[in-house]
Amino acid sequence: MKNSEILNKLYKENSLTKDDIYKDKRGFTIITRSGIEQIQYQNKIEVAFEMIQCMKDMVVIKAKTFQNEEPRIETYGSATDENCMNKFKVEVAEKRALARAIIKTMGLTNTLGQDEIENQKKQIVNK
């Protein structure tokens, strides 16, 4: 199944709105924080987090997803001085790890969580 078909199915099955998903002008799709959480809850995806590194200038968090108690995906989110202007790096890294984990669990490609792209203007996807 193509990514666009997966995305359309995901959009409908998870009651997402035009405020939850939008296209970036560079060609990829962005799912907002609320969209990520909606997908997580609708699909009963549990997420476990583990702190990998926590320093003043770099935080790395690992996220593991589980569905029906079966492990699915393991991925990471980071926040560094280079990719995060927010002083709450742990929280940003956790949001990024969650988004990446949910996106990967759902089988999406060329799709990012909103927290990975800061200060981007929305270009609404019409469904």
Descriptive keywords:
single chain, 127 residues, 3-stranded mixed β-sheet, 3-stranded antiparallel β-sheet, globular
> Helicity level, as a percent range?
25-40%
Low-confidence stretches: 119-127
* Alpha carbon gyration radius: 14 Å
Lateral strand order in the biggest sheet: 1-2-6
Question: What is the typical, i.e. mean, pLDDT?
Answer: 90
Work out the number of β strands: 6
Which oligomerization state do the chains in this entry correspond to? single chain
Total of domains: 1
Tally of alpha and pi helices = 3
- SSE string, helix = H, strand = E? HEEHEEEHE
Biggest sheet, in brief? 3 strands, mixed
**In one word, what is the shape?**
globular
Alpha carbon gap, first and last residue: 18 Å
Fraction of residues in β-strands: 25-35%
Structural class: alpha+beta
Helix and strand topology:
Layout: H1 3-13, E1 21-23, E2 29-31, H2 33-42, E3 45-55, E4 58-67, E5 70-80, H3 89-105, E6 111-113
Parallel strand pairs: 2-6
Antiparallel strand pairs: 1-2, 3-4, 4-5
Helix pairs in contact: 2-3
Detailed description of the structure:
The chain has 127 residues and is α+β, with helices and mostly antiparallel strands. 30% of the residues lie in helices and 32% in strands. It is built from 3 helices and 6 strands, in the order H-E-E-H-E-E-E-H-E. The strands form 2 sheets. A 3-stranded mixed beta sheet has the order 1-2-6. It is globular, with a radius of gyration of 14 Å. The two termini are 18 Å apart. The model is unreliable at 119-127 (pLDDT under 50).
